[in-house]
UniProtKB/TrEMBL annotation, chain A:
Name by which UniProt lists this protein: Putative ABC transport system permease protein
Keyword presence, Transmembrane helix: yes
Listed transmembrane segments: 42-62, 284-307, 334-361, 376-395
Species of origin: Muricoccus roseus
Pfam families xrefs: FtsX, MacB_PCD
InterPro entries per record: ABC-4/HrtB_transporter, ABC3_permease_C, DevC, MacB_PCD
Subcellular location: Cell membrane
Domain ABC3 transporter permease C-terminal: start-end pairs: 290-402
Source species taxonomy: Bacteria, Pseudomonadati, Pseudomonadota, Alphaproteobacteria, Acetobacterales
Membrane topology: Multi-pass membrane protein
Domain MacB-like periplasmic core: 45-257
From TrEMBL, chain B:
Keyword Nucleotide-binding on entry: yes
Native source species: Muricoccus roseus
One GO term describing the cellular component: plasma membrane
NCBIfam families: heterocyst_DevA
Matches recorded under InterPro entries: AAA+_ATPase, ABC_heterocyst_DevA, ABC_transporter-like_ATP-bd, ABC_transporter-like_CS, ABC_transpr_LolD-like, MacB-like_ATP-bd, P-loop_NTPase
One Gene Ontology MF term: ATP hydrolysis activity
Domain of life where this protein originates: Bacteria
Secretion signal, residue range per the UniProt entry: none
Domain called ABC transporter: residue spans: 5-233
Alphabetical UniProt keywords: ATP-binding, Nucleotide-binding, Transport
Name used for this protein in its record: Putative ABC transport system ATP-binding protein
Length: 407, 233
């Protein structure tokens, strides 16, 4: 025991508790060392967080894709104001308004153009297999240029021909290889409803939960395809204002002259009206929120279990640390630090896996699914909160580590 | 110089009402500076409860309990936690963290002092391990050490922070005779060289020889308080 003389006791009474930051660093380091020591348990905890992460990403991704696709058509319209029946729940199933309202709109000083838009679903016969499937028809005055879809401008003249349509190349594949056939053989005949019409070009629009595919056609051709539609009724009116006109003032002026059978909405209002339908009037929005919540709960239970059993299995060690003078708060930071580490270690691979899954699903379903930074931040906060709650629940177990029981 | 432990008329009871059971009855106990006191007595005599009171692990119910100059009667939890940092604890089992090396386990006792840096902590831990004869085992985890070695790591952990008082509870209970003797003598030698007082609870007759004084308890009272026969054997 000759080495004793080497040991100079440190200055007495100079002890002060570590600062919050360095204390937290020590707590997190201890948490990491503990997690690292049991690889299998760490792996299962990470897998649990990853699972929750992927699930939430999928749910939020589907939800965003639904909402985005539901408003593709509205977003594609170059108009400032819209007339719509107040009875319309969603644009894929519109209530009609009298066509005369479109002309009436021109009575307002600020209005430059008012264009009727026709929406209907009709059967489309797959040109290859012959099977019928419902397609969304969008009819409008080709001349007015209210609809702005990639590829549409070039087809303006072609669409004026009788019985012509432009097919949405991003429709579901069940409609047949229309794009390929068009590229190979040029315009060709397809059957819409009971009418033969010619595909004279393709546009890019995309499917939505309301429509598996789209076809754009002129007002006149729309009437030919949808015979049961009375001439005096339209589904939507797109209104363009004169340059520099005040949007809200024009809206108020239109409301003043319009009978109560039409609602006057801005583009943003129409978009939100559409979203509200999917969010509130259908269980779809709820389903995705519920799915996300389930994922978070499952993840939380897994993380809680891991943290809890870590504490329960080391009660004596935790009690010893308390006897040595470690405060409950510091040990809580160790547990919460472990929760934070698990959140981070699960989130990173979870996000990578989700981004890959998005690609796979987008290819299969034609829904606009992609990893968005904003969503990643949201999910990170959710996962962090999930692990935080699990940590806070597990921390309660620390109370069972009583140093007085150690002797 | 003040006595590290000065307990006067402490009474302590578990339970309440009809279930109330007194385990300490007006106990007086004093441990002088640098003194090694062994507290002995049969199971249930209250010696362990007395030790937890001196270690600020329990709140004092009645009487006065001054440890390292701090009155513990009426002390808040945070004050007790702070005082515990100045006491070295040694338990029946080593209670080392299995996922840390011996060096890291010892350094844990220093992490409570914000004035130390990581390098200093590890250096002091290494020096302390060397002085308990484990210089070559500093990097090993507890699972790779023998029972006696683990308890020596626990001794190093209790001493590394230069505590003003060491409290030990049956430190030899889990050890065979030879390692038990070794650990206790090591503890005594280190404490002596630093002038640190020790209060040690045991009913292992083989280690009574390390004590300056032996206090015997029975049924919640001190029944004998004698200078040990073979001091510094």
């Amino acid at each position: 025991m000759n080495a004793m003389s080497d040991l100079r006791p440190a200055a007495r009474g100079a002890m002060r508790a570590p600062g919050f930051l360095s204390g937290s660093w020590l707590a997190v380091r201890l948490a990491w060392r503990q997690l690292r020591s049991e690889r299998a348990r760490l792996a299962s905890a990470i897998a649990g967080v990853m699972f929750a992460c992927v699930l939430v990403f999928m749910q939020l991704g589907f939800r965003a894709a639904l909402f985005e696709s539901a408003t593709t058509l509205i977003g594609a319209m170059r108009a400032d104001l819209f007339l719509m029946s107040p009875m319309t729940l969603a644009s894929f199933r519109p209530e009609t308004i009298p066509r005369v309202r479109v002309s009436q709109a021109l009575g307002v000083e600020a209005v430059q153009a008012a264009v009727p838009v026709y929406l209907a679903q009709a059967s489309f016969r797959n040109p290859e297999s012959g099977r019928r499937r419902m397609i969304q028809l969008i009819g409008f005055d080709a001349e007015a240029g209210v609809l702005d879809l990639p590829g549409l401008a070039a087809m303006r003249e072609a669409l004026k021909q009788p019985d012509t349509i432009a097919f949405d190349a991003r429709s579901r594949p069940e409609f047949g290889p229309v794009l390929r056939m068009f590229q190979e053989q040029g315009p060709f005949a397809v059957q819409i409803g009971n009418r033969e019409m010619r595909v004279v070009g393709t546009v890019e629009m995309g499917t939505s939960f309301g429509a598996d595919g789209n076809a754009v056609l002129s007002e006149v051709n729309f009437r030919r395809a949808v015979r049961e539609r009375p001439q005096a009724l339209v589904d939507l009116a797109a209104i363009r204002l004169k340059p520099g006109a005040d949007l809200l003032a024009a809206q108020a002026a239109l409301r003043a002259i319009m009978p109560p059978d039409v609602a006057v909405l801005t583009q943003e209002e129409l978009r939100r009206h559409e979203l509200r339908y999917w969010e509130e009037a259908t269980p779809i929005g709820f389903i995705f929120s519920f799915g996300s919540l389930m994922g978070l709960i499952v993840g939380m239970v897994i993380v809680y279990q891991i943290l809890f059993s870590d504490i329960a299995g080391h009660l004596k060690e935790y009690a010893t640390l308390k006897a040595m003078g470690y405060s409950n708060a510091h040990l809580s930071r160790v547990v919460l630090g472990a929760a934070g580490i698990l959140a981070l270690l699960g989130f990173v691979p979870g996000t990578i896996a989700s981004a890959m899954l998005y690609g796979v699903i987008a290819d299969a379903t034609f829904l606009p699914l992609a990893m968005a930074t904003e969503r990643a931040v949201t999910v990170f906060l959710m996962i962090f909160a999930m692990c935080g709650v699990a940590g806070l629940l597990a921390v309660r177990k620390l109370r069972d580590a009583d140093p007085a029981d150690m002797f | 110089m003040e006595n590290p432990v000065e307990i006067r008329e402490v009474t302590y009871a578990y339970g309440e009402g009809a279930l109330r059971r007194e385990v300490l009855r007006e106990v007086d106990l004093r441990v002088g500076p640098g003194e090694i006191v062994i507290l002995t007595g049969p199971s249930g005599s209250g010696k362990t409860t007395l030790l937890t009171l001196a270690g600020a692990l329990r709140a004092v119910q009645q009487g006065s309990c001054r440890v390292l100059g701090r009155e513990l009667a009426g002390a808040r939890e945070a004050e007790r936690v702070a005082l515990r940092r100045r006491i070295g604890f040694i338990f029946q089992s080593h209670n080392l963290l299995g996922f840390l090396s011996a060096r890291q386990n010892v350094a844990m006792a220093l992490e409570l002092d914000g004035g130390t840096g990581e390098r200093e902590r590890l250096e002091r831990a290494d020096a302390m391990l060397a002085s308990v004869g484990l210089a070559e085992h500093a990097g090993k985890q507890p699972g790779q050490l023998s029972g006696g070695q683990r308890q020596r790591v626990a001794v190093a952990r209790a001493l590394v922070g230069s505590p003003g008082l060491i409290l030990a509870d049956e430190p030899t209970a889990a050890l065979d005779k030879a390692s038990g003797q070794e650990v206790v003598h090591l503890l005594r030698d280190l404490a002596r060289s630093r002038g640190t007082a020790i209060l040690l609870v045991t009913h292992d007759p083989r280690i009574l020889d390390v004590a300056d004084r032996i206090v015997a308890m029975e049924d919640g009272r001190v029944v004998a308080d004698d200078a040990a026969r073979a001091v510094n054997g």
